[in-house]
Design brief:
A six-stranded mixed β-sheet has the order 9-10-12-13-14-11, with helices on both faces. The chain contains 13 helices and 15 strands. The chain has about 300 residues and is of the alpha/beta class. The protein has helices spanning about 5-15, 15-20, 25-35, 40-45, 45-50, 75-85, 120-125, 135-140, 145-155, 180-190, 220-230, 245-260, 270-290, and strands spanning about 1-5, 55-60, 65, 65-70, 90-95, 100, 110-115, 130-135, 155-165, 170-180, 200, 205-215, 235-240, 265-270, 295. Strand 13, helix 12 (about 245-260) and strand 14 (about 265-270) form a beta-alpha-beta unit. The longest helix has 21 residues, at about 270-290. Helix 9 (about 145-155) packs across helix 13 (about 270-290).
């Protein structure tokens, strides 16, 4: 058993949460989902989280016996956590809110960012459970986090940082052992436990130099940067913007145009699935080794939603 304060302080220090300051993406999306429903999130959530939009969002009891890990706090995942967790247990997630990103084989686009329900939040508080969200800093750290896990599972050799958001880098340019695009896709499906991937661009007999970015890498500037580097493949959470939102309507035509012309092999792994990998291959063991606590992984039933 470990103390919440010790766990919080160690995560904060390891991932430079306070030094990184306000999370640029969450600074846009958290007010956007909570303000229209008149939810007073600034007073409801822990003050450290409100300052940075990373960190301990809900503070439960001080003694932590178990940590639950996921990439998105989907309603069914929160249902499971609340039902099974004991007082003081910690929910650790990459995102403090939910994103519905669409399905390349589905008929509907995703709704984009949505808030956590007041019922779930109140239930966690009533049971004295804790909630820690770590967005940008989990991407920025090169040796532990989302891009680290992508490199490790591909046995990739790091070349340079990639996809800067004004605070830190979300991805990396790497070299991998030569592999065909078909074989790489099959390998990625196994690593990420995906029924299928999103694909665009050009199939290749040999892929060696790649850009890897977990999460939403549907960014024209990043894709153009990768193309200028002469890379063989772009491996990311998202390669299109299949969102029924203002951003999706604006950005998806750019993605369609780029992906129809590029010579790179473009592979999408799903936003949530690409970021869950670090929970499975790194963070669960990190919590065990540093705090001696039990951990439980909470994967989504479907990675494409």
């Amino acid at each position: 058993m470990a103390t919440l304060t010790a766990i919080k302080d160690h995560i904060d220090k390891t991932f430079n949460v306070k030094e990184n300051g306000l999370d640029p993406q969450m600074a846009m999306f958290i007010p956007r989902v909570y303000d229209p429903i008149n939810f007073d999130w600034k007073n409801y959530f822990d003050s450290d989280f409100v300052d940075n939009l990373n960190g301990l969002m809900l503070r439960g009891s001080e003694e932590v016996s178990k940590v639950y890990l996921t990439s998105f706090p989907q309603p069914e995942i929160l249902d499971k956590f609340i039902a099974e967790a004991s007082e003081g247990d910690l929910f650790f997630t990459h995102h403090p809110i939910v994103m519905l990103c669409g399905d390349p084989q589905g008929n509907k686009f995703g709704a984009g960012w949505v808030p956590l329900s007041k019922e779930h939040l109140d239930a966690m508080k009533a049971k004295k459970l804790s909630f820690y969200g770590l967005h940008g800093p989990l991407d920025y750290k090169r040796d532990l986090g989302t891009r680290s896990s992508m490199m490790k599972t591909l046995d990739a050799v790091f070349e340079k940082d990639f996809h800067f958001d004004g605070k830190g880098y979300h991805g990396a340019i790497c070299t991998i052992k030569p592999i065909s695009s078909d074989a790489l896709i099959e390998k990625l499906k196994v690593i990420y436990d995906l029924p299928y991937v999103d694909f665009a661009g050009k199939p290749k007999d040999k892929i060696e130099r790649v850009a890897i970015v977990a999460g939403g890498a549907d960014n024209l500037q990043a894709m153009q940067e990768a193309e200028k580097e002469g890379l063989d493949a772009y491996i990311a959470g998202e390669i299109f913007s299949r969102l029924d939102t203002e951003w999706g309507v604006e950005n998806n035509p750019r993605m369609i145009d780029f992906n129809s012309k590029t010579n790179m092999c473009m592979i999408g792994l799903s936003h949530a699935g690409s970021e869950y990998l670090t929970m499975k291959v790194e963070m669960a063991d990190w919590f065990k080794q540093n705090f001696g606590v039990e951990t439980e992984l909470l994967p989504q039933d479907k990675w494409w939603i």
